[in-house]
Amino acid sequence: MSETSPISLTRFLIEEQRAHQHLNADLRLLIEVVARACKSISIAVGKGDLGGVLGDAGTGNVQGEAQKKLDVLSNEILLEANAWGGHLAGCASEEMDDPHPIPDAYPKGNFLLLFDPLDGSSNIDVNISVGTIFSVLKCPDGVTNPSAEHFLQPGTMQVAAGYTVYGPSTLLVLTLGHGTHVFTLDRELGSFTLTRRNVQIPPDTREFAINMSNQRHWEAPMQGYVEELLAGKTGPRGKDFNMRWVASMVADVHRILTRGGIFIYPWDKKDAGKPGKLRLMYEANPMAFIVEQAGGAATTGRDRIMEVGPTALHQRVPVFLGSRNEVAYVTEFHRNHDRK
Ligand code: P6P
């Protein structure tokens, strides 16, 4: 076989298992099962109106958000795919109030899977890229029926994380703690093929991603930082910046993984009772792991996201992630403000 032969996800995982002892057969099965489920989600998303799956489901989730039919379908696809394999002790999802146990009919394993089954789903009806985000933790020894508290581990405890982006092509982006890698879905073969190994995010950027309509609700350091960006080369940064905002985290993060940038969803007083919009356990932590493994950085504006001690399954955090030097700049900007 020539070295230019395409490397499938299966071959990649087997070779990773040989190279890194922590990647055992159950973790390899977990990743393959999640990837297979995401292929099914990609097919459902791709049908659009023809699949009768657009629009609202008529139900709400724990976040208080109206669920799209595809939110519910994607969640069910991931739960069913992960029920029988014997690799999981339990699942947690943005779409479910409480952790989901593995049915008694099946054996249980040592991993915990957390996911946002269809992030950015408000974009579904306008045909903008959406995605699935997942995070993998170890279940504490001796726990066979994990409750929410067993999921409350800091991001540094993740053994794997990934997302799929359902865009012009369907991509799986994966880290097992040894680099971040990109797989493209070969629709003819029906398998993910390695297309980028060990992605590196450019350390500097001229591109920021934020929902500017919230500007009046931000705290002072956030206002000051963005004013500098908007001042461009006439201001202290000495260079002009561009702005992009898809309002689909997976799409915005994938752009940043590909060409650099900084993604920001800060705290805002619009909903003062919440520390941010994005969820720590199945959005911020997995994205932070992926970005850090690609040479980027991810903070809350003050602290490293992966070192935040979780207190609730669906807790929210402010998110600043992407090109490490830009994340360092805005984080120092916030810390300097706090020191005054
Ligand atoms: P806004 C999608 O609902 C999401 O959770 C992320 O995917 C996205 O980055 C953010 O919210 C968009 O928020 O306030 O711009 O609609």
TrEMBL record:
List of residues binding substrate: 119-122, 211, 277
Pathway: Carbohydrate biosynthesis
Pfam annotation, one family: FBPase
Domain of life per record: Bacteria
Cofactor note: Binds 2 magnesium ions per subunit.
Domain (Fructose-1-6-bisphosphatase class I N-terminal): residue spans on this chain: 8-196
The UniProt record lists the keyword Hydrolase: yes
Any one Gene Ontology molecular-function term assigned to this protein's record: fructose 1,6-bisphosphate 1-phosphatase activity
Sequence ranges assigned to domain Fructose-1-6-bisphosphatase class 1 C-terminal in this UniProt record: 201-334
Subunit structure: Homotetramer.
Name listed for the protein in its UniProt record: Fructose-1,6-bisphosphatase class 1
Species assigned in the record: Tahibacter amnicola
